[in-house]
Every structure is written in C-alpha cells, then in structure tokens.
C-alpha cells in the first residue's frame, strides 16, 4: 500500500526515469548486423571518444544519435568521421555492414592494413590521409557500386591490384602519395566512368596505354617512374600533370606505330577480378537507396512514438516488480550483485549508465585478482576512463568468472585450466587477424596463427557469429569449460578463450605441420614423408582420439565433424584431432555439408547422427590414407567423385584393391596389411550404422596389424 501511494505522487517522474534507464535493454531499431559491425569497428579503433557511441550493443540508428553515423530507418548508410582524431585499425570483418554507402575516415591516424573484407554496398570510400600500410586489397573488385575511392596519402605498398573490371561506376580515384610500385593493371582499362585519376607521388612504372580510352578529365601521374611514350589521346585530357617521370616528353610528337619499346606482353597477372567470388560477408547482399536525412527524421517521429510506448510499458513492469519486491531485496543482496549491470542501469540515468558500462569495459580489461569487490567496482565513479590504446601488452585475466558476471558468479564451474584472452591481445598476436596469419577456414570459423611475445605460437579460432550466436554467454562458457577438460595426446589442446564485444574465440596449441588433408592432397613436402607405416600410425592415433571421445569421456562426446582437415599434424607428424567438443556449435546444415564433402554416413540423410556416424567418417579418412584420393573430388569422372562410392566394391577384390593404393607409395607396402586395412575400412563404412564396430575395436585391430608388421 505504501508502495502505491508513493507511486501516485511520483508516477510520471519515476516512469520516465526508469524508462530511460531501461533503454539499453530494449532491442534497438538498428539492423543487428549493423550493430555488430559498428561494435567491431568501435573496438578496433580503440573506443575513441565519440558522442553517443557505446562499446557493446547500443542502437546506432536510434536516439541519441551517434556522432558521424547516418541511417535510413534501421540501416546504417554512412559513417563520416573524417578528421576525428581516430587511431587504431579497421576490423577484419569491416565488410559486415549490410547497407553502408559512404565511409569517410579521411584525416585520421588509423593504421594497419585495409581489410580485404569490404562492404559490397559501398559507393564512396575515403581513407585518405591516414597511416594505412600494406597492399590495396584485391577484394576491391567486389565493390561494383563504387563511385569514389580515395586512398591517397597513406603508406600503401605493393602494386595496384588487377581488380577494376567490375568497377564501371567509379568516377573519382585517388591513390596518390603512397609507395605503390609496378605497372598499371590491365583492368584499369575497364573503368569506363573514370574522370579523375590521381596517381602522383608513387613509384609506378610501365606505360600509360591502359588509360588511353578512359573518359578522363583530370589525370595526375607526377613523380612516378612511368616510361614513354605517352599515348596521343592522353594529351587531349583537359588537366594532365605528368612532370617528374623519366619519360622524355619532348620526343613524343612522333608516336611509333610499331609496338612500344617496353614489352607490354608481360600480361597482367592471371588473377583477374572475376575469379574472386562475391563478398565474404555471411549475410545476403543488400542494397539501399540513400534517402535524405529528412525522410529519416519524419520516420523518426513515428518510430519515436512507438518506442516511447514500449519504454513506458517496460518501465511500468520494471517499476512494479522492483517496488513490490522491495522487502525481499535486502535478503537477496548477493543476487543483486550478480546482476549489477541491471541494478546500476535501473538506478542511474542513461548517460551515467553508458559511462558506467564503458568504465567497466576498461576495468574488465585490467588484470584482476580473484576476490575483486563487485560493489566497489560498481560505485567507484572516479575510476580511469577508457582503455587507450586498445593494443597494449598482454592482458590476461586470471579469473574468467569475473569477466562474465551475468553467468552466475559463485558457480563451481570455473575454467581454471584455460586463460581468458582479451580481443586486444589476440588482435596483437595475430597481427590484427591479418591475411599472413590466416591458417584456414572451417565450418565454424576462421583460424589464425598467433605469435605471443614470449615466442609461443598458438592457433586462434575466431568463431563465426552464425555458428556461436545462438549460445548465450553462459552456454559458451560451459562449452569452453567442457572442451578444456579434454586431455589426450591426440587431441588439440585448448589453452584459452575470448568472450568480448560479442566475439567468441578459442585459443588452441598450434600444430606446425598443418592438416592431414593438406599433407595428402596439397603439400608435396609432407606427402613424401607419408610412408605406409606413417599412414598406419596416423590412422591409429586418430582412432585413439575418437576412442577417447566415445569411450573415455564422461559423458561421451560425438565429434560430428571428423575429416582429414580436422586431423592436425605436429612437428613429428603425430596426430592431434581438432574441433573436439564443438558439436554444439554445428548447425543442422552441417550434416548436409559433411555429406557433400563425402564424410557423412548414409543415416545423416534421415537426420540421425550417432557415434557410429563418427566411425564412418573415420573409415573415409582411412580410405584417404589408403588411396591418396580426396573424400570428394569434383574434378574426377562422375562415378569416382565420392571416394566411398568408388572404393566400396573394390575393397573386397584383391586386384582392384592393389590398384587402389596411393600411387605415390610406389608399391612400398606389406600386402598382408593392405588386406587387413581394407577389412577395417569395410567395417567402418558399412551402410548400416549398427554393424560398424566401436572405436576401441578399431584401435585394437590397427594396433595388432601394426604390431605384426614390425
Ligand atoms: C571526407 O573527408 C574529407 C577530409 O576531411 C573531406 O574533405 C571530404 O569533403 C569528405 N567527403 C565526404 C563526401 O564527406
Ligand atoms: C611510411 O613508411 C616509411 C618507410 O617505411 C616511413 O619512413 C614513414 O614514416 C611512414 N609514414 C607513415 C605516415 O607511417
Ligand atoms: C574489360 O576490358 C577488356 C579489354 O578491353 C574486355 O575484353 C573485357 O570484356 C572488359 N570486361 C568487362 C567486364 O567489361
Ligand atoms: C575476398 O572476397 C571473397 C568473396 O567476395 C571472399 O571469399 C574472400 O574471403 C575475401 N578475401 C579476404 C582475404 O577476405
Ligand atoms: C535496409 O537494408 C536491408 C538489407 O540490408 C534492406 O532489405 C532494406 O530495404 C533496407 N531498408 C531501408 C529503409 O533502406
Ligand atoms: C627532359 C629531357 O631529358 N629532355 C630531352 C629530351 O630529348 C631531347 C632530344 O633528344 C633533348 O634535347 C632534351 O633535353
């Protein structure tokens, strides 16, 4: 009753207050893909001070507006942060913006390389006057709607990529003031709308012929190393600056009809633009009409009204529940502390709570001891501001439970054996997830090589948003915890993880000899080392890994994605199976993928997967070892594309069998063990799952065979 009276007096004040405090919990109107992309950008830039920007979540298209961000309804269409004193780098997945049209980050101090993953909707892309290094990405070729490109005054190196074939809308391009070398690529001849081209102050060489049929009005090639002769047509360009090149312009009036002196026959690299597929963005292509801000504002009024209603409703709920639970609140202090994010946000204004969460981001990054006092952390208003710069030395937080306070603090499930890594440290170790550190892309994410300051090398698996997105932080944490318990000499060891800014990464020990798939099908050097005996040893070790998962773990674990590219090889060619325990991340579609790649057992067709399905996949890997063929090879004749289909009947015919053996073994194998191997494989790849033997039996068979061969 006291509650209600009090409410009558203060209802409106309070409702508004609570409503505003609750704002961060309402799912904003902004396209979640854009929210994710802009959070990535913000983290990668090192959380600079920008009005309205928040590190996690937030609603870039909703009020309060974010500095420099423009939207059309729920889509981010422009980011204009030129001259905003920005440092840091651009994120690797910069391409995730779904509908962005203009990016202007000119006049800043942004470094690193230009990401190769770019938003394919871009029309205007300005990065001039920064500190970008490295090459111009070839994936420029996918930006078919580009009209303006300015990359001038950076420290870009390498040659201009042959990536312009599709860029027929490009009108202005400025690449001046870099360290670009090499000749102009032939696809520049396809820039059929180009009117302004600035290439001055580089070290470009070769001829200018490729430019002669472009509709240029303004061409500047000063201070390069171009050779003559200059094509006649270029001399008609209204503004053509060309001083500071070695060609002797005065000889030009007599352009030769014969082929120019410098052989143009050294054709451009064969990697022409059309070979590059569509953008790597996991989301469907999207296009947006850039409507003016006015349209935007009108819509805002409508949306604003709706939002206010929702806020009020939510506020009322929050208020009621808080008010009536007031008494029991004191008894539940511990719980309240667990949920300190909510408590704080509900009791302070929006502005303060944003500041608070930023402050926490900063604090969470700092090395902490186990008994950190949450209450003090929460109320300490004079704590340090933002974590500038984002890429300092290693910051490993020893207690992962501290990082995810929402995941029931005090729960016994602590991951003591693995480290928590910050995004920033992993970014540093992987050279910002650069192409040079790229190891491979699997069904679940992308793997990068990480070099730690102490010389240690690790493998970082950056999980795709699509694969781990359905797990809550808590579920992800439990997953990490369960993987960390897998200890076997033939299973890749998990050493840490990262859970920050919506990013989930797993950090593993690194296997220097790549995958069995590469060893068999790609890497001649390692393939030479794969003698019969080595192959049998690899099979045995891989079998032991699966045996451990199926029969040694409690509860047992299905691999669900066993294939030669998940069989990693150490220095000494011993096996470590990867992706163990990651089955919860696999989408339903992964079964189809496994089948498409030739590893999937027939029962997958019926949607069923069992331990015996792993056994089948193991049989396929043994077949790969035996034949040296790929599990699925679309370049083979029809009947031979799927390895199992081709091999199945041949396994029982001794002549056919000996013809099946990998020719690169040059017949160097004991014929007795060949038929034993064929028997084991036949058992594994039987169509009926119930007839396939358990892994322990396969381990025994392999062991006794290897033993007899000695
Ligand atoms: C982009 O930024 C540059 C540098 O501040 C500025 O000169 C230019 O007008 C901007 N262009 C657009 C389209 O915003
Ligand atoms: C560009 O690279 C050169 C040579 O590596 C270096 O001297 C210069 O400082 C760099 N400039 C910027 C802006 O990073
Ligand atoms: C690009 O130019 C070459 C040479 O002129 C031409 O053969 C090719 O068809 C053009 N490609 C496109 C996509 O226009
Ligand atoms: C370039 O784009 C293609 C498809 O558009 C994508 O598959 C590839 O991963 C991209 N390259 C890089 C280095 O991001
Ligand atoms: C926003 O982008 C999506 C695709 O990303 C598109 O389907 C939709 O039409 C866009 N909305 C507006 C208002 O432009
Ligand atoms: C700039 C330059 O080197 N100009 C020379 C071009 O060639 C003519 C005749 O060969 C010379 O007289 C110029 O000095």
UniProtKB/TrEMBL annotation:
Keywords, A to Z, come to: Leucine-rich repeat, Membrane, Receptor, Repeat, Signal, Transmembrane, Transmembrane helix
Location in the cell = Membrane
Which residue windows are coiled coil?
Answer: none
Biased segments, Pro residues type: 253-263
Note the SMART domains from the entry: LRR_TYP
Residue intervals passing through the bilayer: 298-319
- Which Gene3D superfamilies does the record match to this protein? Phosphorylase Kinase, domain 1, Ribonuclease Inhibitor, Transferase(Phosphotransferase) domain 1
In Gene Ontology terms, what is a biological process of this protein? response to other organism
Q: Where is the Protein kinase domain?
A: 433-706
Q: Where is this region: Disordered?
A: 246-292
Q: Which InterPro entries match?
A: Kinase-like_dom_sf, Leu-rich_rpt, Leu-rich_rpt_typical-subtyp, LRR_dom_sf, LRR_N_plant-typ, PRK1-6/SRF4-like, Prot_kinase_dom, Ser-Thr/Tyr_kinase_cat_dom
User: What are the record's GO terms for cellular component?
Assistant: membrane
- N-terminal signal peptide: 1-28
Name by which UniProt lists this protein? Protein kinase domain-containing protein
* Organism, scientific name: Penstemon smallii
Q: What is the lineage of its organism?
A: Eukaryota, Viridiplantae, Streptophyta, Embryophyta, Tracheophyta
